[in-house]
Amino acid sequence: MKKLFVTSVFALLLGVLFSLAPSPAAAQCTMCKTQVESARTEKDGYDFSGLNKGILYMAAIPYLLVGAVGYFWYRNSKAKKPARR
């Protein structure tokens, strides 16, 4: 029972940590946007059409990894519990 409590507290703290993390990370998108806008006005000849897709790709990978780990963790924890009759 104590192990379940420790795991729950750890998961709660990890969730709080992840919910606080995006605040500083949002500044990077503003920086990228500013750089792209300045480069477009200078007419450097660069193609920035794939920038938004690249940002979404980089943002999706951590969510997919955490989801996969959570799925396998859930599946393995269900498999280890004995069936009640």
UniProtKB/TrEMBL annotation:
<keyword id="KW-0472">Membrane</keyword>
<keyword id="KW-0812">Transmembrane</keyword>
<keyword id="KW-1133">Transmembrane helix</keyword>
<protein>
    <submittedName>
        <fullName>Uncharacterized protein</fullName>
    </submittedName>
</protein>
<feature type="transmembrane region" description="Helical">
    <location>
        <begin position="55"/>
        <end position="74"/>
    </location>
</feature>
<feature type="signal peptide">
    <location>
        <begin position="1"/>
        <end position="27"/>
    </location>
</feature>
<keyword id="KW-0732">Signal</keyword>
